[in-house]
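Lecture 7 notes: from sequence to structure.

We start with a single chain of 118 residues. Read the sequence below before looking at the structure.
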Amino acid sequence: MNKLTVIFVLLAALSIAGCVTSGGGSGSDDSVASTASLSDSGRGASQANDSEITSAIQRAFSQDDLLSKSNISVNSNQGVVSLSGRLSARAANRAVSVARAAPGVRRVLWASIEYIPE
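Now the structure, written as tokens:
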């Protein structure tokens, strides 16, 4: 392997490892769904009800420059948030990060995602 390939592989591995341990949203397209499904952020029982969680996430999406133009469906059940939509990998990663930050969220999953080019 050439030097550039080795550097890219190491950066990708570190990004994925960082997603799993810190709950961050950076990684490759393939890591979005798998990382999102592992996103149990360690919060205890849900303090907010599901409609409040859904509303908070939708409000945060509408205030984000990248996500406000995306059509992302948000559902919550006992603090487990399901997202679906058609968006870029960058927007998908951002959506997971924003959703995780909402109060009461225990886990974020991609129910359905279709990637589009940026």
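Residues 3-115 form one domain. Keep this in mind for problem set 3.
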